[in-house]
Design goal:
15 helices; globular; single chain; Rossmann fold; alpha/beta; 14 strands; 412 residues; 36% helix
Length: 412
C-alpha cells in the first residue's frame, strides 16, 4: 500500500519518496488513517516498527493543509523523554517535510538556551521537547502552548520510568482542552492507562504485535559469563567479522567508559555515549557510529533511546538490565523496520534474578549457554614510570634517603 492512498498531501508524499520510503509499516498503516481522521490514539508498538513516522506524517499533513499565519505559533507539541529522541524526531520532520512551509524546533537541555529563545520569537509550528527544558521555557514565558492542536506523548513508558510524570501533567495542564492527543509506548502498563484516561477522549487502541514481546525477527542468545570474564568474552565475539555494527549496553556510565577503554586498547574502534557527554559529543559519536567510523558504540539505557540506526547488526547486553522493559528497548535497536537482528546477553551469577524477571515479563524461558572457551586478548598496560612506586625514588629509580635527620643514638 503506497503512502498516497492515505490521502496525504502531494508535497508530503514527495518528501516521503525523496527520503527513500515506498511502503508503510504495519503500525503506520493503522495509525495514519485514524490520526488523519482526528481520533485520539494509544499506540502500542515495539521499538523499531516505524511508530515515529506514524505520528509525524499526520501532523505534517494536517499543518500543510492550513495556510501558516503571518505570526507563527506552536500548533503541535511532541514530548519525548530524552534529547537524543528529540533531535531524532526533529530530523524525521525535516526530512519528510522538506517541501512544506513549516518550521520545527527541538527544545532540550544540555545546550545554550538563547538560540531556542531566538527561534521561538521568530515563530515555530512544531516543537519537539523534553519535559525539563520545556518547563524552563514555560516559566520564562518564552513559549505559548495555548494554541496547540496536536499533542504527542512519545515513549510514555520511559517517561514514567524516568520520573517525569509530574512534569508531564504540568505541561498537559497548559494545553487547550480541545486538541488531538496521541500517546505511544512500547508497553501499556496500568500507569499508562491511568495517564491516558485523564488526557484523552475515547482513544482508539492500536496494538501492533503481541504485548511485551520483543520483535520476532530478533534472535536472542543468553550466555552464562562470570563478571570478570565478560570483557574477554566480548573481545572474543568481536573477532567475528559478522559483528559489523555493534551496540553494547552497560548499566552505568562508569561501566560504559571502562568497556570502551578496553576495546580501544585491543584495537576495536569504538565510542561511548551516556548522559555525562555533552550534546556535541553525543552528536559526533552518533554520526560516527552511523557513518561506520566506529564499529562499536557502548551506551547506557537513557542515552540509547535516541539511537536510530537501521543497520545495527548486533546488540550486546554486557550487563543484564534491572528492569525487563529496558531489555525490550535495548534489543529493539537491532532488527529495526522489520529487518533481522541478533541480541546477545551476558549473565553473571548475581544477575540471574534480572534474567528471571525478563522471562516472566515476556513470557518466554531462555536456555542459557555456558561461556565457551576463548582466547583472552589481554589489554596492553604501559609499564609504570620510575618514581611511581611506593616510597621516594630518584630519577634513576633507586630509593632516595630520607632528608630528615635521624636522632643520634645516646651513648652509654
Amino acid at each position: 500500500m503506497p503512502f498516497k492512498t492515505f490521502g496525504l498531501s502531494d508535497p508530503l508524499v514527495q518528501g516521503i519518496l525523496a527520503a527513500g520510503y515506498i511502503a508503510p509499516t504495519e503500525v503506520q498503516s493503522q495509525v495514519i488513517p485514524a490520526a488523519i481522521a482526528g481520533k485520539d490514539i494509544i499506540g502500542c508498538a515495539q521499538t523499531g516498527t516505524g511508530k515515529t513516522a506514524a505520528f509525524v506524517l499526520p501532523i505534517l499533513n494536517r499543518l500543510s493543509h492550513e495556510h501558516p499565519p503571518k505570526k507563527r505559533f506552536v500548533r503541535s507539541l511532541i514530548l519525548t523523554p530524552t534529547r537524543e529522541l528529540a533531535v531524532q524526531i526533529e530530523k524525521f520532520i525535516l526530512r519528510y517535510g522538506r517541501f512544506l512551509n513549516l518550521r520545527t524546533l527541538a527544545v532540550y537541555g544540555g545546550v545554550n538556551i538563547k538560540p531556542q529563545f531566538t527561534a521561538l520569537r521568530r515563530g515555530i509550528d512544531i516543537v519537539v521537547a523534553t519535559p525539563g527544558r520545556l518547563l524552563d521555557h514555560m516559566r520564562q514565558r518564552t513559549i505559548d502552548l495555548r494554541r496547540v492542536e496536536v499533542f504527542i506523548l512519545d515513549e510514555a513508558d520511559r517517561m514514567l520510568d524516568m520520573g517525569f510524570i509530574r512534569d508531564v501533567r504540568k505541561i498537559i495542564a497548559a494545553l487547550p482542552k480541545n486538541r488531538q492527543t496521541m500517546l505511544f509506548s512500547a508497553t501499556v502498563t496500568p500507569e499508562i492507562s491511568s495517564l491516558a484516561a485523564g488526557v484523552q477522549k475515547s482513544p482508539l487502541m492500536i496494538q501492533i504485535g503481541r504485548p511485551r514481546n520483543p520483535i520476532e525477527t530478533i534472535t536472542q542468545n543468553i550466555y552464562l559469563v562470570e563478571k570478570e570474564r565478560k570483557i574477554g568474552f566480548l573481545l572474543h565475539l568481536l573477532q567475528d567479522g559478522q559483528l559489523s555494527s555493534v551496540l553494547v549496553f552497560s548499566r552505568t556510565k562508569r561501566g560504559a567508559d571502562r568497556i570502551q577503554r578496553h576495546l580501544e586498547r585491543t584495537g576495536v574502534v569504538s565510542v561511548a555515549i551516556h548522559s555525562s557527554r555533552n550534546q556535541s559529543q553525543r552528536e559526533r559519536a552518533m554520526d560516527g557510529f552511523k557513518g561506520g567510523k566506529y564499529r562499536v558504540m557502548v551506551a547506557t539505557d537513557i542515552a540509547a533511546r535516541g539511537i536510530h540506526v537501521t543497520d545495527i547488526s548486533h546488540v550486546i547486553n554486557f550487563d543484564v538490565p534491572t528492569f525487563p522493559e529496558d531489555y525490550i528497548h535495548r534489543i529493539g535497536r537491532t532488527g529495526r523496520a522489520e529487518a533481522t537482528g541478533d541480541a546477545i546477553t551476558f549473565v553473571s551469577r548475581d544477575e540471574h534474578k534480572y534474567l528471571r524477571r525478563i522471562e516472566k515479563f515476556i513470557g518466554r524461558d531462555f536456555t542459557p549457554v555456558e561461556c565457551p572457551g576463548f582466547t583472552y586478548v589481554k589489554p596492553h598496560t604501559p609499564k609504570p614510570l620510575l618514581g611511581m612506586h611506593r616510597g621516594k625514588f630518584s630519577k634513576t629509580g633507586r630509593k632516595s634517603r630520607s632528608t630528615s635527620r635521624r636522632t643520634p643514638r645516646r651513648r652509654r
